[in-house]
Amino acid sequence: MKFVTRPFRISCVCLYCSLFFAPASQAGNDMSSIFQTSFAVMVKAAAAIEEGMNNLNAAEGCAADPMCESPGDTSSGFETTLGACCYENDACFNDFNEYVRRTDVALYTLYKNERTYTIFMMAQNARIAMMKGAASTSAVGTAIGGKLQADVAKARKSYIHKFNVTTNANINRLNEFLLGLDSTLKQYCGVDNWYQINGLPIFIHAKTKFPK
Amino acid sequence: MTLPKIERLYYLVFAVALSLSTSDLYAQQATGVYQDYLKDAALTDKKPTRIRLAKDPRVRAGKVGGVWGSLGNGDEGDSFFIGKTPDQVNLQITITTQPGSSLVHFVFRGKDGSKVETRSIQSVPGETVSTWISLKGSLTLEATSKSDAQTFYALYIWHPGDLFDSLTLDKISEVSSGKYATRPTLFKGVKGDRP
Fold first, then answer.
1. Nearest-neighbour CA in chain B from A182: distance (Å)
2. Strand B128-144 versus strand B77-97 pairing type
3. pTM of the predicted model as reported, rounded to 2 decimal places
4. What's the pLDDT band for B28 if we cut at 50, 70, 90?
5. CB contact under 8 A, A59 and B180
6. How many of the other CB atoms lie within 10 Å of CB of B191?
């Protein structure tokens, strides 16, 4: 096969590439402009809406809790005072703000999940009520309805278990941040009872309100 | 056997071209999206083609599905079955068509017993149209175009789940418009005299 020279082989490879890939890539370009881009746009919009939904749930979770939302008060949530001692010390100020930010995120997560739990349970209860109504029409329906109800009850139990595991872990994290805030104020300002007066009530409230 | 340097280089280029080309094809795959432009879904089938909403790692909440469709050139329309739901569900519909393309008319139907509800959406050429619909029962979709010019469309259905089903479309509209884009503050430090 002496006539199969290197330039000839290279040309064959190039020709194969151009014949095989050119139509595919042209079609691909047409498609990608509509299909891939649109999918990316949809994914981005979905993420923004989901974020908005989380914010709404956290706000509504707080609004449903008298300790979080003061009636008649325009501001919501818990707060703590930053004293002059800490305000004038950069290290204290930074530590204080960091622990406040973390505590805020921990409470946001707890209230968001609480609202999610409430809505999930409402939906499950509505389904059970609907199943009971449908099942009561016949003997066969009663048997099938009973099995479905048992499945829903099992799913609920599993959901509550997972919810409690996550919630207790989040409450422990919240407590760590409250203790961090306490130690910051102790270290820089000599305040030795911040946690007892401000942190512990929040921790106890979370411990009694969120786990089911 | 060792290939000469220049030949190795050409084979390397060929291998790279091959891998890039195939990776592009794979990148086009989106979970739960029916590729109608490759295998046409007929308008008149008694059992319409099913769009199966599925979890997609890129969309955290709920399930997504859709169609990468083609109409015109003798294809008068596409018909799809989305699924059955005993509960009222809120779905986000996102539609994109090419600039200068023909108008595509989408009709969603929810058949709950003898009650049939429809929601119509029309494409805007070259733009992405996004809206929310609320339906229950057996859900179907029809896509039609009056023109015979070939038109590609991308349609996505997102069902975020129970959290969104519990909301009214007005509330969802508020969320979609960015009213709750900012995270609420639930713990803040205020400047005072005493810590």
1. 10
2. antiparallel
3. 0.76
4. very low
5. yes
6. 10
